[in-house]
Amino acid sequence: MDMARSRPYNVAIIGLGSAGLTAARTAAALGLRVVAVDRGKAGGDSLWTGCIPSKSLVASARAASAARNAGRLGITVGEVTVDRAQVWKRIREVQDSIASTDDNLEHFRELGVDIRQGPATLVGMRGIRVGDELIRAHRIVIATGSRPRIPEVEGLAAADPLTPDTLWQLPEQPEDLLILGAGPTGVELAQAFSQLGTKVTLIHRYERILPAEDPILADLVEERLKADGVEIVGSATAIEAALIERGTRRLTVELPPEDPTDPESEKVERSFESPHLLVCCGRHPNFEALDIEGSGIDHGDDGILTDERSRTSARHVYAVGDVAGRGHTHTASYDGGQAIRDIAIPGAGRRAAGVPWVVFTEPELGHAGLTFAEALARYPRRRVQRFERDLTLSHKGRTDADQVGRAVVVTVNGRVAGIHILGYGAGEAIGGFQRDVATRVRLRRMSRNIEAYPTRSVEVQRIAADTELDFVRRVRSWVPRMPGR
After folding, report:
1. Domains in the chain and their CATH numbers?
2. Is 275 left (phi over 0), alpha (psi -120 to 50) or beta?
């Protein structure tokens, strides 16, 4: 096809994961002439290798855990049996259900989106090549996602480890699993598989799991994982991996000296063997095949560089989602829609700021804003405070027989900079608290937010109420003739 003779599109979208699908849907709704390109199956990482399969697994694990712990509530269910084949089958059924409805490309064609399938490369300033076809577009949105990052460990790649992308291709749930990496993905999968009967060993290089989270909350999650049967090996540096025989993989790690106070004490090597080694060590943006340098697009280690409108250094090209280093599914979807808004009305789109997220352990860990350590690092000359409340002592925690739960509020000069909740339902609650974080509301003013009773969110309100009471006491001490003195 001759580029000069083909009618240009208003916008071309490369990649049909969460960000690309939202961008395509938004562009069609605004009446833009849009073409979308994907080299694989629509739905991207979230549908096929990320949120949907993992959260389906978590749902089954939660059910098994609830049955085993029903005795705390006076319910006897007998021995809990996990049908691993059915658990695995259900994951695929959920994926197929979404693929045939929400992410069905026929639906997008009906909306007016032209679809092309195959690898895409950028050509010149405003062109895309897909196979033998050259497509012109006034604006381009790159939403090509990411792929698992494999650490540079001797023999690791040759050992053919599983990744979050290939895990779900196993014919059935594994009986034994070795997981390298204790970020959200590794921790979620470790607990879920263990609750479903898999023998799980979780290995990581930090002092505690979930290093980006509040350390006290992370420690509580670690205790819960151990109670669920997960063996956790921390402060471990992977030094070698090998496929030692058919179906068995070995991972060797280096551990700190047994006596760190003894200068002659040496580091310890330890090896672990399992049929399956799952690497959960972050992700790498997918942009190499696009030839972005030829189009004048800058990038860093974490992805394509963008401004607050998601524009790249080539201002007619936008990048959203994982490829721009913005990894959460909800962030990618939002940024995809906002990029199209900015294309339709220049200057109107803004990428997401202050995005909350959830670690889907049992119980969930909701994160909004800064942790205490992050606030101290960012605001070294301001008054940074941390407030905490035990959710197991809340009325909801007692009615539900919660074994663990904590709410944490971080303030800077009295204004809310972060809220973190470890508790059942934290994922549903954290979005509402994100608004308080984003607007930097004064903590004592949050006492005026009326939370439904009995919920665990009431405890955040009570943290604020305690601050308000302290403020009133101080005011009374300053004013000598107030009534009641």
Report:
1. 9-146+284-344 (3.50.50.60), 167-279 (3.50.50.60), 363-478 (3.30.390.30)
2. alpha
